[in-house]
Write a structure and sequence with these properties.
The complex is a heterodimer of chains A (about 130) and B (about 750).
Chain A lengths: L6 E5 L3 H13 L3 E5 L2 H10 L4 E4 L8 H10 L8 E5 L4 H10 L3 E4 L5 H13 L1
Parallel strand pairs in A: 1-2, 1-3, 3-4, 4-5
Chain B lengths: L8 H10 L1 H78 L3 H27 L7 H27 L2 H92 L3 E6 L4 E4 L1 H6 L4 H4 L4 H4 L1 H4 L2 H12 L3 E10 L2 E12 L2 E8 H23 L3 H15 L4 E8 L4 E8 L9 E2 L4 H8 L3 E3 L1 H9 L12 E9 L2 E10 L8 H61 L5 H32 L7 E3 L1 H19 L2 E5 L7 E3 L1 H17 L6 E9 L2 E8 L6 H4 L23 H11 L3 E7 L3 E9 L6
Parallel strand pairs in B: 13-15
Antiparallel strand pairs in B: 1-2, 1-5, 3-4, 4-5, 6-7, 6-11, 7-8, 9-10, 10-11, 12-14, 15-16, 16-18, 17-18
Helix pairs in contact in B: 2-3, 2-5, 3-4, 4-5, 11-12, 11-15, 12-15, 15-16, 16-20, 17-18, 18-20
Classes of the chains: A alpha/beta (about 130), B alpha+beta (about 750).
C-alpha cells in the first residue's frame, strides 16, 4: 500500500456494516480508518483530517448531524467532502443536511459496495 | 267578547273605509256578473221571442195552407158544378128538341143522372168539416139543386108521357131561374173564398203585429227584471261582503299578536284587543271607556301622549321605539305605532323586550354552536361557552365536570366559582353533580328542592351551599359523561326553565365537541403511531438488510468459491435485494401518502437511471435467460424529477418485467422524446394481465389474478408507488397488455424547462 492512498474515514455504528464497508473500500484501493460513533469521529478528524468522510446519521453519543455541523463550523474541516451514509430518510434531517452542504446522500440498503467505491473515487478524483 | 266594540261605530266606519278596497273588488266582481247576467237574459229573450215567432208563423202558415187547400177544393167543385150544370142543361135541351122518343128518354135520364151526381158531390163537400163551401151557401146550393132536380124529374116524366110541349113549358118556367140561382150560389161561394182569403191575410198580419208587441213587452220586462235581479244580487253581495269583512276584521283584531287599542276623539279607550290585555296586563273591562293616560300614568309624561297629538294633527302614522312601561314591577319595552283616523287613533303596542331577549338567546345559542365547532381545545371551548352563557343569565359561577368511567372519578376541567376552589378529582359522592350524572336529567335546584333531596337521602352538601343551582348532563348517546352547572350565591338571583333550556342546548354542544375532540385525538395518535412505526420499522429493517447485502457482496468476490457456494451466495443476494425493495416500497408509500415525503426534483437523465437499474438487476435477467434490448437512450432530454424516486419507478417496472416473464423471454426498453413529452416504455413477453384486472392494476395492495402462477410473495405496492410518483411528478402512466402475450408499461413526463 503506497502512502499516497486517499484516506477515507468511515463513521458507522453498526459493526457488520462497518466491517463490510471497510473491507470493500480497502479492496478498492482506499486507506480506510473507522469510527463507531460521532464523538470518536470528531476526535479522529481533528487529530488527522482525512480526504473524505463517510458519515452515518443515527449514532450513539454524537449524531451524524452534529458531527456535520461541527465540521462545517470549523474552518479547518469545512472543505473535507462528506458523504452521508444512512438508512434513515427523515425529511427534516435531509433538508438540514443539504443546507449544510454534503457531497452525497446515500441510502445504505439501496447501495452496493461497488457503487459506493465508485462514488468515493469520483469525488476524490475531482 | 265583542263588548269592546260597543260605542265604536266610528271605528267600524273606519274599518269600512279600510275595507273599501275589498268592497271595490266585490263591486267589480258584481259588475262583471251583471254583464254576464245581461248576456244570459238577452240570450233567453231572443230564444223566447224566437219561440213565439216560430209558433205564430207556424200557425199562420198552417191556416194559410188550410185555406189554400179549401180553396182548391172549392174551385174544383165550382168547376164541376159549372160543368155538370152545362151538361144537365145540354142533355135537357137535347131531350126536349129531339123527335126520336128513344133519344128523348136517354137524354132525360142522362140529365137526371148528372143532377144526382152534382147533389152527391155537394153533399159530400158539405160533410167535410169545415166545409169548403161554407155551411150556409153550401146548404142553399144543395137545396136549390135538389129543387132543380125535382123540376127536372117532372119535366122528364112529361117527356116520357109524350107531352113534350108541356115539358118544354115546365122546363122553361122552372129550369132557367133555378140554373141562374145555382150560378149565383157558385158566385156566392167564390165570394166567401175571397172574403176568407182576405180574413186570413188580416189574421196573419195581426199575428205578426201581436208577435212584435209581445217581443217588445218581453224585452222591456226582461231588461227591467235583469236590472232588478242584478241590483238585488249586487246589493246582497255587497252587504255580505261588508258584513263579512267586519266579522273578519274583528277576528283578525282579536287574533293578532300585537296589542291593539283604539282611542276615540274624546280620549276614551274604545277598543282593547286580547293581545293588549296580555302584553299590557290590563283587562278589557277595566280600560274600555276610560282615558288611556289615566290607566297608565306612565304614559302621561311619555312620548306616546305627544305622539298621539302629533299623529292626529298631521294625519300621519307615528312609530315610537323604546317606549318604557312599568307593568307589575317589571320594566317592559314597547314599540308603539300610532295611526290616526277620522274617529280617533289606533295604537299598536309591541312588547319588544321578549323579542329582543329571544333574539339574544338565539344568537347566543348560535354562537355556542360556532364556539363548539371552532374550539381548538376543551379549555377554549369551556371559556367561550362560559362567556356566552354569562350573557344570557347570571352565570358568574359555572363549572364543567367530566366523569371517567375507567377510574370512576369525577374531574373538574373547568371551574369558576366565587367561593370554592377547583375540587380535586374525586370518586363519586353524593353531590348535586353526581345526582345529575346518575339520573341523566337536568336539575333546577333552589334551596327547597335541595332540602327535599337531602331529606330523601339523595344528596349531601358539598362545597358552599348556593341560592340556586342548575345542572344539566353532558350526554354521549344515552350515557351521561359529565355535568355543566351554574350556581348563584346572590339572594334573588335564580334560574328558571328558560335558563335550563339554554344550558341544555349548550351542554349538547359541549358534549358533542368533547366527543369530537376525543375522536380526533385518537385518530391523530393512531395516524402518528402508524407513521412512526413504519419509519422506525423500515429503518430498523434496512440496517441489517444492508449488512446482509454488503456481506454477501463481499463473499461473492471471494476467489475459489465452489460453483454451488457461489450460487447460494447469489440467491442470498437476490433475496436480500427483494426484501430491501419491499421495505423501500412500504416506506415510500407510507410517506408519500402521509405527505411527509416531498419530491426533490432535479434534472435527471432517464437513460442514466435506467442503466444504473439494469446493472443492479443484470444478474436476474441473466439467470432468467431473458433477452434484453434498450433503445432510444442517445440524446434523450433530461426531465425534472426526483432521481431517487424515479430510480425506484424504473426498478419496479424492470423487476416486474423480469419477474412476470417466463424464462427466455424478451424485454425491450424504449425511450424517446414525443413533442413536449419524454416517453419511457418497457415491453415484455410475459404472462400479461387479464383485461378485468387492468383497471385496478395501480391500486394499493392490488395484485392481478394470474400473478400467483409466478410467485406468491409480493405486496401489491410496487405499481401503486410507481403511479403515485409519476402522478406527483406531473406525468402519466398506463399499461397495455394481453394475457399470455405480454405487457407494455409506459409513462410520459413533461420536458423539463432546461430542455428549452
Amino acid at each position: 500500500m503506497s502512502t499516497d492512498l486517499k484516506r477515507v474515514l468511515l463513521v458507522e455504528d453498526d459493526r457488520f456494516l462497518r466491517r463490510a464497508c471497510e473491507k470493500s473500500l480497502r479492496q478498492q484501493g482506499f486507506n480506510v480508518s473507522t469510527a463507531p460513533d460521532g464523538e470518536e469521529a470528531l476526535r479522529a478528524i481533528r487529530a488527522d483530517p482525512p480526504d473524505l468522510i463517510l458519515l452515518d446519521l443515527l449514532m450513539p453519543k454524537v449524531s451524524g448531524l452534529e458531527v456535520l455541523k461541527d465540521l462545517k463550523s470549523d474552518e479547518k474541516t469545512r472543505a473535507i467532502p462528506v458523504i452521508i451514509l444512512t438508512n434513515s430518510s427523515k425529511e427534516t434531517d435531509v433538508r438540514e443536511i443539504e443546507s449544510l452542504g454534503v457531497s452525497g446522500y446515500l441510502v445504505k440498503a439501496n447501495l452496493s459496495l461497488e457503487e459506493l467505491g465508485n462514488q468515493v473515487r469520483q469525488l476524490l478524483e475531482d | 267578547m265583542l263588548s269592546g266594540f260597543c260605542g265604536c261605530k266610528e271605528f267600524i266606519q273606519w274599518v269600512k273605509s279600510v275595507g273599501q278596497g275589498r268592497v271595490d273588488r266585490v263591486i267589480n266582481m258584481t259588475k262583471r256578473r251583471r254583464f254576464e247576467a245581461t248576456l244570459l237574459l238577452i240570450g233567453l229573450i231572443v230564444a223566447g221571442i224566437g219561440g213565439f215567432a216560430i209558433r205564430d208563423l207556424r200557425r199562420a202558415t198552417q191556416e194559410t195552407w188550410q185555406m189554400h187547400s179549401d180553396m182548391v177544393h172549392a174551385l174544383d167543385l165550382i168547376t164541376e158544378l159549372q160543368y155538370q150544370t152545362q151538361e144537365t142543361r145540354r142533355s135537357m135541351l137535347y131531350s126536349l128538341t129531339t123527335t126520336d122518343p128513344n133519344l128523348q128518354v136517354n137524354y132525360a135520364e142522362g140529365s137526371r143522372a148528372a143532377d144526382k151526381r152534382v147533389i152527391q158531390l155537394i153533399a159530400g163537400y158539405l160533410n167535410l168539416t169545415p166545409s169548403p163551401l161554407g155551411d150556409v151557401a153550401g146548404k142553399r146550393l144543395l137545396r136549390d139543386w135538389q129543387n132543380y132536380a125535382k123540376t127536372r124529374d117532372d119535366v122528364v116524366a112529361l117527356i116520357l108521357e109524350g107531352s113534350v110541349k108541356e115539358a118544354v113549358q115546365l122546363d122553361l118556367r122552372a129550369g132557367f131561374p133555378s140554373f141562374d140561382r145555382v150560378r149565383d150560389d157558385v158566385n156566392g161561394i167564390e165570394q166567401i173564398y175571397k172574403r176568407r182569403s182576405e180574413n186570413q191575410f188580416a189574421e196573419v198580419k195581426r199575428a205578426f203585429n201581436r208577435s212584435i208587441l209581445r217581443l217588445g213587452i218581453i224585452l222591456c220586462l226582461s231588461i227591467i227584471f235583469a236590472g232588478v235581479a242584478v241590483g238585488q244580487l249586487e246589493k246582497g253581495q255587497l252587504l255580505e261582503a261588508i258584513q263579512g269583512s267586519e266579522a273578519r276584521l274583528r277576528e283578525v283584531i282579536e287574533s293578532i299578536n300585537e296589542g291593539m287599542c283604539v282611542v276615540g276623539r274624546d280620549g276614551l279607550v274604545d277598543l282593547w284587543n286580547r293581545a293588549a290585555e296580555v302584553s299590557l296586563r290590563r283587562r278589557r273591562q277595566d280600560i274600555v271607556g276610560h282615558p288611556l293616560m289615566e290607566v297608565f300614568p306612565d304614559l302621561q309624561e311619555s312620548r306616546l301622549a305627544a305622539g298621539i297629538t302629533e299623529a292626529r294633527q298631521n294625519g300621519t302614522t307615528i312609530v315610537l321605539e323604546d317606549l318604557q312601561l312599568t307593568l307589575e314591577d317589571a320594566r317592559h319595552i314597547f314599540v308603539a305605532r300610532v295611526f290616526p283616523f277620522e274617529g280617533g287613533t289606533t295604537i299598536f303596542f309591541n312588547d319588544v323586550g321578549e323579542r329582543k331577549r329571544a333574539e339574544k338567546v338565539q344568537a347566543a345559542t348560535f354562537r355556542a354552536a360556532e364556539a363548539a365547532n371552532a374550539a381548538s381545545n376543551l379549555e377554549d371551548l369551556f371559556q367561550s361557552t362560559h362567556a356566552i352563557v354569562n350573557d344570557l343569565m347570571p352565570a358568574k359561577n359555572l363549572y364543567v365536570s367530566l366523569y371517567n368511567p375507567e377510574s370512576e372519578t369525577l374531574s373538574f376541567p373547568y371551574f369558576i366559582d366565587e367561593h370554592d376552589s377547583t375540587p380535586a378529582p374525586r370518586k363519586l359522592k353524593g353531590g348535586l353533580t353526581e345526582y345529575v350524572l346518575r339520573t341523566g336529567n337536568a336539575l333546577l335546584a333552589p334551596p327547597k328542592v335541595v332540602e327535599e333531596l337531602k331529606e330523601k337521602g339523595q344528596i349531601e352538601d358539598i362545597g358552599t351551599p348556593s341560592v340556586c343551582w342548575l345542572g344539566v348532563p353532558l350526554k354521549k348517546g344515552d350515557d351521561s359523561v359529565g355535568v355543566l352547572a351554574v350556581q348563584s350565591y346572590t339572594e334573588g338571583v335564580t334560574f328558571g326553565e328558560e335558563e335550563q333550556k339554554i344550558l341544555t342546548f349548550v351542554a349538547a354542544q359541549i358534549a358533542m365537541t368533547i366527543e369530537r375532540k376525543r375522536a380526533e385525538a385518537e385518530l391523530t395518535s393512531a395516524l402518528q403511531m402508524k407513521s412512526d412505526f413504519v419509519s422506525f420499522a423500515t429503518h430498523q429493517l434496512r440496517t441489517p438488510l444492508a449488512g446482509i447485502k454488503w456481506s454477501l457482496e463481499l463473499a461473492a468476490q471471494e476467489e475459489n468459491l465452489s460453483e454451488e457456494t457461489a450460487s447460494f451466495i447469489q440467491d442470498g443476494r437476490d433475496s436480500a435485494q427483494r426484501l430491501i425493495g419491499m421495505v423501500n416500497d412500504l416506506l415510500d408509500v407510507s410517506r408519500l401518502e402521509s405527505g411527509k415525503l416531498k419530491l426533490a426534483p432535479k434534472e435527471t437523465s432517464l437513460a442514466e437511471l435506467t442503466q444504473g437499474v439494469l446493472k443492479d438487476v443484470s444478474h436476474q435477467i441473466e439467470k432468467q435467460g431473458h433477452h434484453l434490448s434498450v433503445s432510444g437512450m442517445e440524446g434523450i432530454p433530461t426531465v425534472l424529477v426526483d432521481p431517487q424516486l424515479f430510480r425506484q419507478v424504473i426498478l419496479n417496472m424492470v423487476s416486474n418485467a423480469i419477474k412476470y416473464t417466463p424464462s427466455g423471454g424478451k424485454i425491450d426498453i424504449n425511450m424517446g422524446r414525443e413533442n413536449s413529452l419524454v416517453r419511457w416504455a418497457i415491453t415484455d413477453t410475459g404472462i400479461g394481465i387479464p383485461k378485468a384486472n387492468q383497471a385496478h392494476l395501480f391500486e394499493k395492495f392490488y395484485r392481478a389474478e394470474n400473478v400467483y402462477k409466478i410467485e406468491t410473495e409480493g405486496t401489491g405496492l410496487g405499481l401503486h408507488l410507481v403511479k403515485m410518483i409519476v402522478d406527483k411528478s406531473g406525468g402519466r402512466i398506463w399499461c397495455e397488455s394481453e394475457e399470455n402475450k405480454g405487457s407494455t408499461f409506459q409513462f410520459t413526463l413533461p420536458l423539463s424547462g432546461g430542455n428549452g
